[in-house]
Write a structure and sequence with these properties.
This protein has 132 residues and is an alpha+beta fold. It has one domain: Gcn5-related N-acetyltransferase (GNAT) (Aminopeptidase). Helices cover 33% and strands 33% of the residues.
């Protein structure tokens, strides 16, 4: 949990307009525990480098949260993880869904890997990837 709390704080700090920026540690921990049964810590050479929460429903898998340490962003780590999730979703013949903040540069990664915007609200794009 200490790693995940640091990762979450690092991620929120990168999005100063995020309402979560004003949360204290107890509130961040509460958000981390939401759907924690879906969480997988990402390891690289035995070191924690990120986290993905993937809710695997019938017909659609939803990426609830996906974060990689800022020090590794832009090095292909997120792309490799997301590509693996896509491969697994394709094998299961399900769609992938994700909500991506409009100010999050990761939306370009999702688009590059075949996600399409299917809706939006004031803050996020709702994106989908259909199985191939």
């Amino acid at each position: 949990m200490p790693f995940l709390l640091r990762l979450r704080r690092e991620h929120v700090a990168g999005h100063p307009a995020d309402a979560d920026a004003a949360l204290d540690d107890a509130q961040h921990l509460e958000r981390l525990r939401h759907r924690f049964e879906c969480a997988q810590v990402l390891l690289m050479d035995g070191t924690a480098v990120g986290m993905v929460k993937l809710l695997q429903g019938a017909g659609v898998w939803e990426i609830l949260q996906f974060q990689v340490c800022r020090s590794l962003q832009g090095r292909g780590v997120g792309r490799a993880v997301l590509a693996q999730v896509i491969t697994e979703a394709d094998a299961a013949r399900v769609q992938l869904a994700a909500c991506v903040r409009k100010d999050n540069p990761a939306q370009r990664l999702y688009a590059a890997l075949g996600f399409r915007i299917v809706g939006e609200d004031a803050h996020e794009f709702q994106m989908r990837h259909s199985c191939g």
